[in-house]
Structures are given as structure tokens and as C-alpha cells.
Amino acid sequence: MRAIFRCIVVRLVGVVFFGFLFAASSRATIQYQISLAHPEQHTFHIKMTVPNVSGSLTVQMPAWNALYEIRDFASHVLEVTAANESGALPTEKLDKQTWRIIGSGSITISYDTFWDEPGPFSSQLNSEHAFFNPAMILMYSPDRRNEEMMVGFRDVPEAWTISSPASIGSFQSSRAIGFVVSSTTYTKFADSPVEFADRKGSSLSNFSPLITLTIHGKTEHMDAFKEKLARICKYELVLMGGAPYSDYTFIFHIGENVGGGGMEHANGTAIAARNEETALTIAAHEFFHLWNVKRIRPASLEPLDYTKEQYTQSLWFEEGVTSTYEHYTLLRAGIWTKERFYEALGLAISELEASPAN
Predict the structure, then answer these.
(1) Given CB 3.0 to 4.6 Å as the disulfide criterion, which of 56, 89, 217, 257 pairs with 103?
(2) Is residue 79 part of a domain?
(3) Could you write out the DSSP letters of every residue in 265-280?
């Protein structure tokens, strides 16, 4: 994470209906439908279906995600209702992030969640694009979080395409074409941000496994940008002895009013910056997080608990060492001059010496 995109792209044609998508998969248990209808209203419409419930079902919104701090995603949730095959079910809010539904069988929880906050640490739905970190909009069942799940998207504007580190495919029948994420778990999908926009994805040449990127915003020097990004990735892959992923996705937001910074994920990153130069600097940092934090992890961050703080004294290593190799990468890949490297080093030393905790 820095404070300041394999992208599978398929085109959606028309309005999508998803009941038949999930019926086609007997493997998935928890099923989600995410509607992007009327994106200008900034509201994600969610249906979560949980089968094989006996007596009652408890669901929660995470208390944190995409930043190492407690956040209030539940405050964005509107109008929670639940039903099974027999009809509406009693729903009780136990605390600010937990609901209990009394009933059995296959239960569907329906709710809306409002998001219009730019940047890689938040989620946003508007007339230009949809970007979301899944844990900010999707509830989970605490005792069934590791079950296999499927996600479907509907009511996506026709011109929009999709990009995510998650394995997203298309489904087609005589009735509709749509997007689905299958054979995943909540924890894995929560670490896979999703971008929908009227933008084409592309890939970096001569990389195996595949590295792809999608850019929402304006780039003035796309070929040069991709060439420099490829140098950054190549240097760090050689430095660390190869790729720890099957494919990797960069999601870039570049321009004004897009937020700022970058967030690391196991198989991708989301980055927001005002210009291409800043985006490349952040990319050098976030790509190194593939190893340092996503694979080399402090024990204090495991097992993952979305309900409360997880205290650690290791972020100085996870972020500090990553920032150090960010700078080494930019120098050794020829993005920075030596003068720019030493300037950044001097600023870091000055910041440390001025800190009461030096």
C-alpha cells in the first residue's frame, strides 16, 4: 500500500438476468448477484443467496479492508431484507455490522450499498465507471466464509468492460450474456478489486505469466508508459526469482479527482495518480508487495479477521523495505536518475530525523 491493472475483458450485450447462471453450477454454495443499474445513483444492488440454512443465518459486513484501519462499511448499507422459498423472513440487526435472519433452507438477503468515493482504498459507482473492493460491498456468513462461492454481475452498461485479478469469465445462453466469478472464496475475492469502465485492457509484451493493465482516465504517452512499467516489473521479477502469481492485473486511475495512492493485492494492484510519472512510482512499490506483505507476511496478520483490529509491529518492514526497493527499482530500471534517487533518499532521512520516534 502506498499513501499519496491478467485482465480478462469481455463485452456485455444488453440487460443480464442471472438465475440461470447459478443454476448451471452445482459446485458453488454462496451466490452473489451485483447489479449496476442506474450507476449515476452511486448504488450497488446486492443479492446474497445462502443455501442449506438450518434455523437461522448470521451475516456481517467487514469492519476493515484495503487499509490497515477500522472503517465503517456497514454505514453504506441500505434496506436489508431476507426471504426463502416460503416468503419474507424476520431480520434483526445485532450490531452495526451484523444481521441475523430467522429461517431455513435457501435464504436470499437483498440490500443496497451507496459508494461514491474515489481511490484504491474505497469504492465508487458513477456514470463513468464502477470500481469496488468486494469486502466493502459484500456481506459474508462468519462460519461459512471459506465455502466456495460464485458472483454474477448484471445491468452493466453496454460499453463497459471488466477487469480484475479474480478469474472472470463470460457466460452465454439463448437468453443472455454475462460476467461470472466462480470457484473462489470470500477471502480470495475480497482481495480482488473490480473495475468496470469504457476502456480497453492491454498486456505487457513478453511476460509469462501474463501481466495486464487497464487504465481509466487519460494517458498522453501510452506506449512509453507501458515500456517503463515493463522495465519495473522485469527488474523486480528477476530480483525476487520469478513470479508468485498465475497472472497479474494493474488497475490504473489517472487524472484529476481520482484519489491517490495504491493498494496491494495478491495478484494485482489498484493505483490512483494525477499523472503517469506518479503512477509508475506507485507501481514500483505495489508490485514489490507481491512478495513483501502478500507472501512474506507477519504472523500477527493471520488468520484474517474482518471484525476487529489486527495489531502488528511489522509494518515498518512491510512498508519500509518495500519503499526502499521501490526506489532501487526506479533507479536500476532507468526510470529515475541518480540525482532523483539521492533526492528521495535525502527526503527520507530528513523525515526520519524530524520524527520524535526516530
Answers:
(1) 89
(2) yes
(3) ETTEEEEEESSHHHHH
Rounded distance between C-alpha atoms, residue 38 and residue 21, angstroms: 22
Residues 179 and 264 in one domain: no
List of E strands, 54-115: 56-60, 77-84, 87-88, 91-95, 98-102, 105-114
Q: Does 126 lie in the same domain as 253?
A: no
Cell of 88: 419474507
Number of folded domains in the chain? Answer: 2
Q: Classify residue 14: in a domain, yes or no.
A: no
Q: Please state the length of the chain.
A: 358
Do 212 and 203 form a contact (C-beta atoms < 8 A)?
Answer: yes
Q: Is residue 358 part of a domain?
A: no
Rounded distance, CA 348 to CA 334, Å? 21
Question: Which residues constitute the domain of residue 237?
Answer: 201-352
Q: Which residues pair with 105 in a beta bridge?
A: 53
pTM of the model: 0.89
Query: Which residue, 301, 332, 161, is CA-closest to 232?
Result: 332
Coil, helix or strand at residue 17? coil
Nearest C-alpha neighbor of 226 from the set 283, 141, 148, 272:
283
User: Which residue in the block uniquely carries the three cell numbers 423472513?
Assistant: 89
CATH code for position 312: 1.10.390.10
Distance between CA atoms of residues 300 and 63, nearest Å: 17
Rounded Cα–Cα distance for residues 101 and 92 (Å)? 6
pLDDT for 296-328, tens place per residue? 999 998 999 999 998 999 988 999 999 999 999
The answer to whether the CB of 178 falls within 8 A of the CB of 154 is: yes
CA dist., res. 110 & res. 69, Å (int): 27
pLDDT digits (tens, 9 = 90+) for 115-128: 999 999 999 999 99
List strand residue ranges (DSSP E) for 36-188, in order.
43-53, 56-60, 77-84, 87-88, 91-95, 98-102, 105-114, 124-125, 129-132, 149-154, 161-163, 168-172, 177-184
CB 274 within 8 A of CB 255: yes
DSSP H or E segment with residue 202: strand 201-203
Residues 24 and 168 in one domain: yes
Does residue 212 contact residue 248 with C-beta atoms inside 8 Å?
Answer: yes
Burial 137-165 (b: 16+ CB within 10 A, else e): bbbbbeebbebebbbbbbbbbeebbbbbb
